[in-house]
Amino acid sequence: MFRIILAALLAAGTASADCAGDAEISAYVDAYLSRTPAKALGADGSLEDALCTQGKLIAALEPEMGPVVGYKVGLTSKPAQEHFGVSEPVMGVLYRDMLLEDGAEVPAGFGTVPLIEADLLLVVGDNGIREATTPDEVVAHLSALRPFIELPDLTFAEGEPVNGITLTAIGVAARLGVVGADIPVEDPAEISQALASMAVTLAAADGTTLTEAPGAAVLGHPANAVLWLMSKGVTLRAGDVVSVGSFGPLLPIAKAGDGATLTYAGLPGDPTVSVRFAD
Fold it and tell me: In total, how many domains does the chain have?
């Protein structure tokens, strides 16, 4: 279950009129599952209210999406934060059944507003990660990296507000993601250096480059996403996965029949992960 250690904030939000009520949660879940435009949740509330709403939404979605298996960090660049009116990243969760295997074929219309982004999963190796204070120390407590094409869904109906509060309330637009093979962390110092300097390239099926960015594009180092989560009260456990955020802009899905491959040049073996979009 949801393990963000923000009990006081959630309790405060529960008592607020701006933490979504049961009827609002039910309406959003119905829209989410039917892939129809949804009303934004928590538009007039605070971050505390949004976290309260997200907690309720997780409880409602877990029976459909499987249990929470990790966390996702969004808005990890200054331009993205400025665009959405926040001064730091936002957080959501990952559900077991949203994670698909490398090469998966996904409907082009998998969501209301289907998007694609270059991402990466970090797999927590042991509970000692809770004591980490630097990216190098985070990496020393990882068991593996996993290539990850996230397929988020900006579910809002036209005209609904899209900002840090409403994104937090809906769990930062989690819908699907395609996961590649584990990259074991055998030499943490080498992996940490590679994470910052790697070239992350998302290419279309015809080889056209869609986005390209260095590893440092995510908070200066992808492992900083873990440090940020922990600074917000998240207690990580061995086996948890963390989606570090987007290396480059989110893009719309072009059309059925297209696909994309994500490459991490500089990580051991220059690993890749691919997805195909079907009718």
Answer: 1
